[in-house]
Each structure stands twice: as structure tokens, then as C-alpha cells.
Amino acid sequence: MTEIPTTRTARYLPLLSVVTLLAAPLPALGSGLGWSLIFGDSGSADLLEKLVETADFQKSPADKIETLGPDGPMPEISRQMVGVSGDAQAAIPALKKACTGLGLEAPDAGQAATEPDMICTGKFKEARVTVHASLVCRSACEVAIETRAISY
Question: Which of 61, 71, 105, 116 minimizes the number of CB atoms within 10 Å of its CB?
């Protein structure tokens, strides 16, 4: 019986298969990074920091800001829990006032009906943004704030 000569490709096929399987997730991982490098940050975290800084209510320590990058049609989302040490009922009106100071407007009736926790919307740093806030009181009160931004 004659032995068929092994080609270089056939010899390395198992190794190439393993490398391909390991490298397959990289484009998906890199796409989010590529998105931010090409289009930049939509500004949802910057907006959140600015709102909390500007809002005039007594704050206690806040959690870190959590930011989720944009994914297809989904906006960039930043979230933070901010403790309220004074009058808890003053927190949401103070955030609405901070929105107005940043040039954002109250949501229209349709938006308010669809998303009752939306407190303002508008344009911030070349992005279309919405701000959502709700008061959460257990043993202490906190304001859950979420900003969403889609770059133009």
C-alpha cells in the first residue's frame, strides 16, 4: 500500500482549528471597543456626573457609575445609586431642575406615559439623551439615576 504524502496544511489542521476556535470571540469583543474608538463616548456618564453634581439635594455617598456601551440600536447607558441624607422627596425635583439647567426638557406626554420614570430628555454633547430617576426607600433612601445616550 502506498502512503499518501501529508501536506503542510493537513499537518497543522488540528492546531489551526484550535486557534480559530479561540480567536472567534475576538471580533465581537473588539466591536464594542471599535465602536467607542470610532464614535467616542456618547456622554451618558458625563451627563450623570453633571446632574448629580448640579442637583441641589443632600446627598450621602454614591455608588460607582456603571456604564454599558451601545449595542446596535441600544443606547449607551450609565447608572448610579445616590444616597439621600435629607428630605428624600426633594431629590427628584432637584434632578429635574438640574436637567433644566443643562438645557434638557421634560418628556412629552407620550414619553411620560411609556416611561413614567423619565424626568428629562434632549441633546447633550452631540448625543440624544434621556434621564430616568426613581426614589428607592428601604432602611434609607436612594435615588436610582439612569442616563441613556445615542450619538448622532
Answer: 61
